[in-house]
């Protein structure tokens, strides 16, 4: 796959991909920085940049700081050099969008009301129809569409490209990643949703420039993104951060993972909705009933938060209970990881003070003062589409890694 003129020199081809990878990851850079990063001479760097400028892949963008003398020109990737399809699979809906190399959303975010099941075939059949429609509507040159980056809940083995929790197919010899690739005809990256949230925060949000950060994704389930030494940590199989399945409640409810008393059984969006429904059905007085038009199955996190913002005491208490449990769980993480920052993201984070105040009180109660005082707790400001940008960053990064490796071996 080439969007620049193919070179007779494999070394030059590899240098071009490494240069583009640097510009993608670090943004506008002067020639001197590119020389240091790639280990090349100034004439070689200037030659590569000149070639790719003529091919409309890179461009000059402003000037850098001077350390004496003339300010250096900065070079960056042009927009629309390459594109990637990003898909965010949730339990009850899926969102998708096409993103370019400068993190621009090329298409509107398309939301599909499809339920994530454990069966693969039916889900992929529905999903892939919408994926093809999105790609066709964008009218992108095929050589510039580099792949698809998928994020979803569950235990995802990043090396095997398999989700051990959802979209299982014991009759197929293909991994989930291979099944996507077979249908789409593009390289596919599959990752856990909270890793996407963490990478988005690291590249574009509160974690930018930080070294040790915890990102708590509070949606239907509870997930943890771990940033250590400025990198999102995967664990040996990609399973790191399963915060929601920490043992929490003695003799607690049965979790869908098969264990009793997991944190998610008392502190997730699923639990919040379930508890609210049970309360309404048992006669609890709350405006939740009116907001849902007395349709109990419609009671979800957003509706409970809206009721709390309208002063509904039952909703406020439900959110407070969730915040207290989460705060106790987070206090354990703070003592284990000693982060400088804890970022709250996801649907429950939108409850703001109804969650953060009881959460902070629990952290104050259960966490050692000396460690707690070093950890700032903030809410994400990236919005609902942040995970899609995190998926784009991971997918484009892996694309460059593959192309650099291929240039080395061919």
From TrEMBL:
Signal sequence, renumbered to the chain: none
Pfam families hit by this protein: ROK
Cross-referenced InterPro entries: ATPase_NBD, ROK, ROK_cs, WH-like_DNA-bd_sf, WH_DNA-bd_sf
Similarity remark: Belongs to the ROK (NagC/XylR) family.
The protein's name: ROK family transcriptional regulator
Protein species of origin: Chitinophaga chungangae
């Amino acid at each position: 796959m080439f969007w620049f003129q193919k070179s007779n020199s494999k070394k030059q081809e590899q240098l071009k991909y490494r240069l583009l990878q640097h510009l993608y990851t670090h943004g506008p850079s002067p020639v001197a920085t590119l020389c240091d990063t790639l280990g090349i001479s100034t004439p070689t760097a200037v030659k590569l940049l000149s070639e790719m400028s003529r091919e409309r892949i890179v461009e000059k963008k402003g000037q850098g700081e001077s350390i004496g003398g003339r300010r250096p020109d900065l070079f960056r990737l042009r927009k629309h050099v390459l594109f990637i399809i990003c898909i965010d699979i949730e339990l009850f809906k899926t969102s998708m969008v096409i993103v370019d190399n400068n993190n621009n959303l090329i298409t509107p975010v398309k939301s599909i009301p499809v339920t994530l099941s454990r069966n693969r075939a039916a889900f992929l059949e529905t999903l892939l129809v919408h994926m093809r429609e999105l790609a066709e509507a964008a009218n992108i040159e095929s050589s510039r569409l580099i792949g698809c980056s998928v994020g979803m809940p569950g235990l995802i083995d990043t090396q095997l490209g398999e989700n051990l929790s959802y979209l299982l197919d014991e009759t197929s010899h293909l991994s989930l990643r291979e099944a996507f690739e077979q249908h789409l005809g593009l390289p596919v990256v599959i990752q856990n949703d909270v890793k996407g949230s963490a990478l988005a925060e690291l590249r574009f949000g509160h974690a930018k420039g930080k070294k040790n950060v915890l990102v708590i994704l509070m949606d239907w389930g509870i997930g943890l993104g771990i940033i250590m030494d400025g990198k999102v940590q995967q664990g040996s199989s990609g399973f790191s951060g399963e915060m929601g399945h920490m043992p929490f409640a003695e003799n607690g409810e049965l979790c869908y993972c098969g264990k009793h008393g997991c944190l998610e059984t008392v502190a997730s969006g699923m639990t919040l909705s379930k508890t609210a429904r049970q309360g309404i059905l048992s006669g609890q007085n709350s405006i939740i009933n009116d907001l849902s038009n007395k349709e109990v199955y419609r009671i979800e996190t957003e509706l409970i938060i809206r009721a709390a913002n309208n002063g509904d005491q039952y909703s406020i208490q439900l959110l407070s209970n969730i915040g207290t449990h989460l705060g106790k769980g987070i206090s354990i993480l703070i003592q284990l990881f000693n982060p400088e920052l804890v970022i709250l993201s996801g649907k429950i984070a939108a409850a703001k003070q109804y969650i953060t105040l009881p959460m902070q009180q629990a952290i104050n109660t259960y966490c050692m003062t000396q460690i707690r005082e070093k950890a700032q707790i903030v809410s994400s400001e990236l919005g609902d589409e942040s995970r899609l940008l995190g998926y784009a960053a991971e997918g484009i990064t892996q694309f460059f890694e593959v192309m650099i490796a291929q240039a080395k071996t061919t």
